[in-house]
Amino acid sequence: MTVVTRFAPSPTGFLHIGGARTALFSYLYAKRSGGKFLLRIEDTDRERSTQEAVDAIFEGMAWLGLKSDFDEIYQTRRFDRYKEVVQQMLAAGTAYHCYASKEELEQLRAEQMARKEKPRYDGRWRPEPGKTLPTPPAGVQPVVRFRNPVEGQVVVRDLVKGEIVFDNRELDDLIIARADGTPTYNFCVVVDDWDMGITHVIRGDDHVNNTPRQINILQALGATPPAYAHVSMILGSDGAKLSKRHGALGVMEYRAMGFMPEAMLNYLVRLGWSHGDQELFTREEMIAKFDFDHVSASPSRFDMEKAYWVNHQYLKTADLALITGEFDWHLRRLNLDPANGPDLKAVIEQQRERCRTLLEMAEKSKFFFADLDGYNEKDAAKHLTAESATLLEALDHALAALPDWDAPALHAAVNGFAEARGLGLGKVAQPIRVACCGMAVSPPIDQTLFLLGRERTLARLKAAVSFARSKT
Asked: Which of 75, 153, 256, 268 has a C-alpha 20 to 30 A away from that of 115?
């Protein structure tokens, strides 16, 4: 048997953290098993589904690198297939027409609740041996209901939660096609999973109560139900329902915040799954080690600080080629031209230790790619003084005379300049940083000046001298 899993989001909003984790677990299980993973857009809710949300789902999945092994699948393009199966079920007697009006059902619900009973359809239009059904009212388009078994149990051997048992008598006859002929969610899911050979349904535990209904429909169709794994919900760090203040954002908002996609996957996989004490995983390690034996049935907690920590570990250690494309993207979002500066890999190498996110790295690297638009006021007041103006002017002449503009030569020149004047390196390096970077924080001064280049460095030293003297 070839394992086939699916991620089936409803396009009514962005791809959120919980959905991304579900997609990841489905992807990893399929890949570890040598199987296939598919993305299916469940867009039958036409009132709430939007193209913008569809685009956001595809964009988020592409950024995370969770690629489907199949062409794009949309439920709205399969309506003819759903109608065909409904007719088969009507002919087989596993489904029936129900003419109960909305008002009748509301009254039934109110009466049941008044008696403190569980609200449920009472089967008034369900065909039974020896039962006489009412005459269908004129002009009323019926819905189609599934004829759920009334005896026995549905036993779900959940890969996360263990065995869950449902009594069929607790399940009423759900609607599988509305009066206008459009199919309902639970029915579409069943037909899709059947047609697409889904072997493992991995989804959030808010779907647990849908599972026995879907299993019964599959069995009525003569299909073998897939295995089910219902993963627990994600809570905020305080144990409350996850909200925006905890980090319940769209996946692409994390990109804008400066997260690496690989780091995001690494953080998500640890929300409810573990492999010993290991915290950091490559994609290949996730695929090789993921299993449901170590997926927790308890809710996990989203910790933003831990997410930042994971991202920082990736920035510090990942192959520079993995980081360069994302860094380029962030620079452009800041209206910076990556071509108007040093090699991106060289900048990343110097900044990766000091930045938790790519956004922070891009903001701290602006001075490499654009002219300075001023100096940090506090840093300038401290380091661009009349005294430092004299130093910077002399340094400008010394650096201009260097035959080679490389990090070793610059290191020797700046250190030699400070020693010759009996100054600590900080007394020289900090004014240089403010002059060349606009602030008193940068990578090592020799690397900073090397990456800036001779022309920019000398021009900025001259500008800083003029600025410092203009204040006196």
From this structure: 153
pTM assigned to the model: 0.92
Whether 244 sits among the annotated catalytic residues: the reply is yes
- Can you give the pLDDT at residue 47? 78
Active-site position among 118, 244, 462, 471: 244
Alpha carbon distance 393, 395 (integer Å): 5
**pLDDT > 80? residue 248:** no
CA distance 111 to 104: 11
